[in-house]
Structures are given as C-alpha cells and as structure tokens.
Amino acid sequence: MSTIVQDRFAEAKARFQTLFEAGESQLNGHRDHPLHQFRRRAIHFLEGVNFPTRRDEEWKYTSVNRILQPEYTANEAPRLSQADIEPFLIPGLDCHLLVFVNGVFQENLSQTGDFSDGLSVIDIASALSDEKYQASTTAYLEGLLESQSDAFKILNAAFAHHGLLIHAGKKAIVEKPAYLLHLAAPGEKASFNNHMNLIIAEPSSELSVIEGLFELPGAEGTYFNNHLNRIHIRENAHIHHYRLQREGKEGFLVSNVDIEQDGNSTFSSYALDLGGRLVRNNLKTKLNGSGTNTNYWGAYFAKGEQHIDNHTFIDHAVPHCISNELYKGIVTDKASGVFNGKVLVRKDAQKTNAFQQNNNLVLSDKASMDTKPELEIFADDVRCSHGATIGQLDESAVFYLRSRGLPDAQARGMLQHAFLYEAIENMKLEEVRLFAEQLVHHKFEE
Amino acid sequence: MSESMQTLEEHTRSDYKYGFTSDIESETIAKGLNEDVVRLISRKKNEPEWLTEWRLKAFEHWKTMTEPKWPNVHYPPIDYQEIIYYSAPKKKEQLASLDEVDPDLLETFNKLGIPLEEQKLLAGVAVDAVLDSVSVKTTYKEKLAELGIIFGSFSDAVQHHPELIKKYLGSVVPATDNYFAALNSAVFSDGSFVYIPKGVRCPMELSTYFRINERNTGQFERTLIVAEEGSSVSYLEGCTAPMRDENQLHAAVVELIALDDATIKYSTVQNWYPGDKEGKGGIYNFVTKRGLCAGRNSKITWTQVETGSAITWKYPSCVLKGDNSVGEFYSVAVTNNYQQADTGTKMVHLGKNTRSTIISKGISAGFSNNSYRGLVKVGKKAENAHNFSQCDSLLMGDKCGAHTFPYLEVENNSAKVEHEATTSKIGEDQLFYLMQRGLSEEDAVNMIVNGYCKEVFNELPMEFAVEAQKLLAISLEGSVG
Fold first, then answer.
1. Mind listing the pLDDT tens digit for each residue in A268-305?
2. Alpha-carbon distances of A207 from A9, A16, A352, rounded to whole Å
3. Could you say which DSSP state residue B26 is in?
4. Measured between beta carbons, which residues in chain B are less than 8 angstroms from residue A350?
5. Residues near A353 by beta carbon (within 8 Å), at least 6 away in sequence
6. CB atoms within 10 A of CB A414
C-alpha cells in the first residue's frame, strides 16, 4: 500500500473517530447502555483494521477512496409526511412497515401493526435489555468484533444506533412480511448512514424481509449508506431476503449480508441494484448443517458513471447441500460492473450441488464489466458448474422484433427488459416482483 | 484395447520412468548468485557486451523484487544462494559430427527415447537436446538451414545471429516482467532459438528436449521463436529429470513472435520429476510463456500436457495485437499424490476481430491441488473480440482439490466473452454403462479419462502422438477405481 493511500485512510479513520465522539456527546445519559459500550469497543477496534485497497484481491476492481474522501456528518433526518414516503411503498402489499431516514427510525411513519403471527421486530438497544433476546443478541454483536477484519462492518457496529432484531419464533409461518424502508436525505454536508439488522428464524419458521433503499427526490447530495445484515436460519426454517436499491446519483452503498444456515434450512436472496454512484454488495453464506438450500438471484443495471460491484460467496462446509445462483446485469454509458462469485466446497462437503451463472450485457463502448466466477473444490463427489458471459444483444433477435413492426429502440428495450427479468421473476411475493419491475421500468426511462 | 489405452494403463501403474541419473562428467560453477556469477555465465558463453549488460540490468531489477505469493500453491521458501546456476557436460572436444558426441550423453537420451542419431529418428522431427544448462546436440540443422530456417541452441544464435537476438530478446517478456522472468533473464544458460523466414512453412516438427541431470542445479533456459510473414512452424518441448529428494527449480522463459499471416503451434509435454508419493522432491516448474501475435491474421496455439513437476505454475499467454489474430490454449493438467498446479492462460485482446479459445482439462487425484487461473482481457480498441473458455475439472479421490479462478475483463461493447466450467467426478452411470459392456473398472475409468482429454490430445501434432502418449504418464496410480 502506498504511503499516500495509507495517509488518506488514516485521515478517514480519524474523521470517523471525531464523528463518533461528537455523537457520543449528545447521548443524554445513555452512555452506560450496553449497546453504547459495544459501539465504543467497535470504534476502538477500528484502529487496528485497515480499509481495503485495490491490492486486496477482493477489492481488485473497486476503489474505496471515493467513499472515504468526503467529510461526513450525522445529518438530522428531515420530518417527512405520509405523502413523502408514498412513492416508495409497495402497492397492494400487506406488511409491517418500518421507515428509516438517514438511518434513524421514524416511528410516526411506520406501521408495525400487531405481531401475532410469531414475528417480533424490536430495536437492538431494547433487545439487549430483554431477557428473552439478550443472550443471542449479545452473541451476534460480539461475533462482529471477533477476528473480524472488515472495516465497513466495524464502522457499522460503531455507528448503527437504530439496529433491528427481527425474530421469527419456532414454527411461526409469518405471512406478513416486514418492509424496511431506508430513505436517504442528504443535506449540505455529506451524510453517513448506518443500519444493522439481526434476522433470526427459529426452527421450522418462515419469514420474508424486504429492504428498500432509496434517495428522497429533490435532495441530491453525497451520502454513504453502510448497511449490514446478519442472518441466522435455524433447522428447517426459510428466510426470503429482498433488497431493492435505487440510491442517489451521489450515493455510496456498502452492503454486507452474512448468512448462517443450519441443517435443512433454505435461504433465498433477491437483489436489485439500480442506483448509487458506487455500490458494493457482499453476500456470504456459511452452511452449518446438511440438506440446505441457498438461492441467490440478482439483477443490476448501471448507467452514467455508476459502479456496481457484487461479491457473493457460498461456503459449502457440509455434505448434501444445494446452492443456486443467477446474477444478470446491464452496463451502459460510462458505467462499470463487477461480479465475483465464489463457491467453496470443503473436503467433507460431498454430494454438493452448486450452480452459478452470471450474464452481462455491455451496451456502450465506454462501459466495462469485470467478472470472476470462482470455484474452489476439495471434495470429489460433487456437481459444480458455473458460467459467465459478457456480450451484446442478439442482433437476430432485434431483427426479429423489428420485422414484427417494433421500432429499433423499443425492440432493444424489450430484449433488455426480458434479459433482466429472468433474475427478477423468481421473487416469490408477487407485489414485490411487480414493484421491482416498476423500478426497472423507471430506470430504462431515465 | 487400443494402443493409446494400453499406454495410459501402463502409465497409471508405473512409477516415474525417467528418474535415472546419468554419470556424465560435468562442469559446474559454485552455488550462489551475485553479479560475478552473472558475469561468469555470460563469459562462459562468450557473449557480446550488450547481452552481459542486459543480464546485469535484469539482475539489478530482480534484487528489488519480491517473490510473488498469490498463486494457490504452497512450498517452503527457496534459498536462491543454494542453487547452482550453471552446469554443462564437460566437452571432450568441439563437436563436429555425431560420432564425437559423448557416448554417455547419447546413452542418456536414448534411454529417454530421444534418439540423437538422425538416421534413426522418427521421420520428420528435428531435435535440440538440452542437458542441464547446455544444448548438446541439434539434429537436422543443416537440412533446415537450406530453407533459411535457423534452429539451434540459443548460445549458437547469439554467436551467429546477434542481430536477430538483439531485436527480439525480451520483446514479448521484458526482463523486468516478473520475479522469475527477471531471474531467468539474469542467469539463463541456454535454450532453443527458431527463426522461420518469410513465406517458409517448416517442413518438419521442431522439438527441444530438456533434461535436468546435475544435483542442486536450477535450469533456466530461454526459448525464442520468430515466425516471419506468412511462415508457419510447429514446435514441441519435452522434459524429464532424475528422481532426487530435494526440490529443484526450473524457471524458463518462452517468447513467441508471429508476424503477419504467420502461425506458431507450441506444444509442451511436461514430465519433470513430480516427487515421490509422500511429496518429497520434485521440480518447481515456474515458467513464463508468452506469445505475441504481432501481425495481421497471425495465430498462436499453445497445447500443453502437464503431468510432472511437484509444483507447476505457468500461464502460456497470447497477446493478440494484430487485427484478426487468433490465440488458442489447450491444456490437460494432471496432478497426483502431493503435486500442485496453478496453471491457465491469459488472452489479451488488443487488435480488431481477434478470437481466442481456451480449453482446459484438469484432473486431480491423491492429495493434489489443481487450479485453473485465466484472464481474458478485451481492450478498449479491440472491436469484435470473441472468446470462448471452457475449463473442466475431474476429481479422483476425496483428498484432492480443483479450483477455477477465471478473470474476465471487458472494456469494449462489441466483445463476446463466454466462460463455462464444471467440476465433477466420474459419473457412476458412465462407469456402469462401460462395465456392463464387459470392461473392467480400471479400463472403464481409463477410457472415460481418455475421452475427457480427447479435445486437447487432438491438438497435439500428429508426429508426436506416439511420443506424447509415451511421455504422458498420467500418474493416477492408486486413484483409479
């Protein structure tokens, strides 16, 4: 690492520390709360951790310099009315709605309703003093600081005040999904927003969590969303995790989703990345028990000068597990895309069946795409395959549509739409799928 | 059972056949590496001043570099001062004809099945034999010279064709390219040089046979092949080494240059000593191979069958600079026992309408690890580039590993890049099918493995089919069945 970069990172760290101390002085006597004690430890932990550079293989194609440059503040959340959030609600979806603006929970806008179906959503601060959740919540938080070297996760641990614990009780089949709406309202100064979710599905439960990340219209400015999800799926349980994002033109997003799956559980991730100046998603699953099923579906569409980086990882540590991954993306204008999918099959993970596919359309001569599908396999009785393509629209398909009377632009649009749709159509909740399609539609019209 | 099947069968059972040592008196210099050693090697080879300077510059640069750590292989640190950098069979007298070649030497190569006597040669193959650091004999040299083809040892070429060497040496792999290329540039001892003049199609296969004999030596050879406009050449290299308990380093550099409409086909059958069953000994094969398709419509094909070496670490690459140029890479890499391989290719598309194909087949058995690492890069100006990559891995045993690290980097919107990879073991259903037709389990496995590699074997030059099959010791002993 060059000394210039090192200095710059050290400065960034110092700025984050100052920001932390500023926030600490406004705690109004909550200093002794266990959550705050934890956050203090996290900020100290940050000292020993380095931000990644492009010399790190995992960050070869994405530089974090741009994210770390601005001087961030914790911006006050503007007071919003119901009408302000209306465009971000999913039409027709009956859900528990939780609204966050700049990482701060907005009770007046949220509609949590009753949690009679075995679901509980409480903030981490309360969970730490609740007898029922204290032990597990503490364990998960501690896990963040143990041998953890990711600087962004540590930052999140230090700054996320309004983290949530989302918990589905044993055998609870939760019909009503939780919709977490994260709105960014950047101000004069660049704002730094953090959010953390601990999502736990107890044995034989099923639960859907939808996360929407958007920028409020009319408030364009620089901001950095540092997002963290820690998911644990116990035996026989199923979690659907939706993440739809259309961050602002000057918005940075780093999203870490760490999943742990016990035996016979299922995890499905549905991701749609449309916005953001620089987006980095890390999706990591660790398998604890056999007979699990893991699905990753992702679609991304980058325009202008956007940079969208998706890193996915599945750690097959136990036998008889299935993983299935499909990521599809379009890059155009001067945008760049990165995909890195890694499948690790450890020595004892026999009978693993892993599939991974990444398809990309590069539509302009200044756009670029770097993809790296990786397989690391140490077991012999496995079936693993991956495929990756980078290309353009099939001209004969365009010709076919034009011969049916469609104008060129429309024909191409239709094909691009269909291309992305393959990665969206698996969304299980129909309302969410339609909403996602709507978002894609807007993106095409931009 | 076909002949090839028999050969395969034989080799899956046999131990390393080429592990004998020859008692040939040789001249070695003291171990260790410093500026004086570089000068000494240069002086021994009677090199012109500019080449000595070139070596020293490379050595200076090497001293500033550190050994790369990124490959997926593990080995104890190499002590570069413990290596002997120059070893040559003692010359009894200047060789004028075959009769004067040291009979011990002849015997060595005969044992390897590489006859140096022209009359007994496989029809149409010219051989340049390299023992330790020095080229001992080149066959058919005169016949090729009639066509204007220069084929012989690198040292000869430095003496007789310095202008060509000066022009092309380091033009594809610069002396500062990487750690091992820099080391090679400083201390390279010999190798082959091939020059095919304009419009000449080389009438026979050219071949170099590398043999490490002396203890504690490192072999650092340099091969340079230049194909002028409209010419074509097919070249094969083979390599073996004696069985020794300590590891020996082999760090070679191969440079290929294809000008307009030229074709170069480079095939490797690599069978360095892989170490014993406990992973003791064996060759570290750290090689830089790169071809430059400099001219329009040029084509470079790499075919490799990698069965030997304790550690193989190489990426034969193609820089597709000329418009319409074509790069191909066909590879079979077999690892058994404690062998490690991190191999693949780089296809760098720079010119318009360039095409590349990558077919890589990995087989891992025993406790071995086999990685495919490849880069397909399409530059901004490389209109209509097209790449197809396929890399399959076959696992035989539950203690081995197979890994794929493909990098696809595309900066041009007219590029089509396709990559696919699979990893699996031999299908129970396939085995069952063959066995119910009356084949034994061993035969069935061999047949499936053979079929799996067929795509690559087909790319090997016809003339070498027999020889390659012989050298291809797919040492899967103990893992079959």
1. 999 999 999 999 999 999 999 999 999 999 999 999 99
2. 39, 35, 25
3. E
4. 398
5. A321, A322, A323, A382, A383, A384
6. 14
Q: Which residues of A touch B425 (CB under 8 A)?
A: 380-382
Contact A336, A303 (CB under 8 A): no
**What does the block give as tokens for B48?**
């012109």
CA–CA separation, B92 vs B102, rounded Å? 8
CA distance B371 to chain A (A): 8
Asked if the C-beta of B401 comes within 8 angstroms of chain A's C-beta atoms, the answer is yes
Please tell me if residue B427 touches chain A, with a CB cutoff of 8 Å: no
What is the percent of chain A where pLDDT is above 90?
Answer: 57
Whether chain A has a CB inside 8 Å of the CB on B442: the answer is no
Residues in chain A, how many? 446
User: Is the reported ipTM for this assembly greater than 0.85?
Assistant: no
Q: Roughly what angle, to the nearest 10 degrees, separates helices A408-424 and A430-445?
A: 150
More confident residue, B161 or B464: B161
Among candidates A350, A365, A386 on the partner chain, residue whose Cβ is nearest the Cβ of B413? A365
Domain positions in chain A are 3-289, 394-446
**Sign of the alpha-carbon torsion through A77, A83, A87, A93:** positive
Q: What is the pTM of this model?
A: 0.81
CB A310 within 8 A of CB A340: yes
Asked if B407's CB is within 8 angstroms of A372's CB, the reply is yes
- Whole-angstrom Cα distance, residue A336 to residue A333? 9
| Pick among A369, A374, A375, A384 to test the B interface (most B CBs inside 10 A) | A375
Report whether A343 contacts B402 (CB < 8 A): no
Binary contact (B423, A382; C-beta < 8 A): yes
> How far, in Å, CA of B393 to CA of B364, rounded?
8
Residue B114: phi, psi to the nearest 5?
-115, 85
Of all residues in chain B, what percent carry a pLDDT higher than 90?
20
Distance CA A167, CA A201 (A): 6
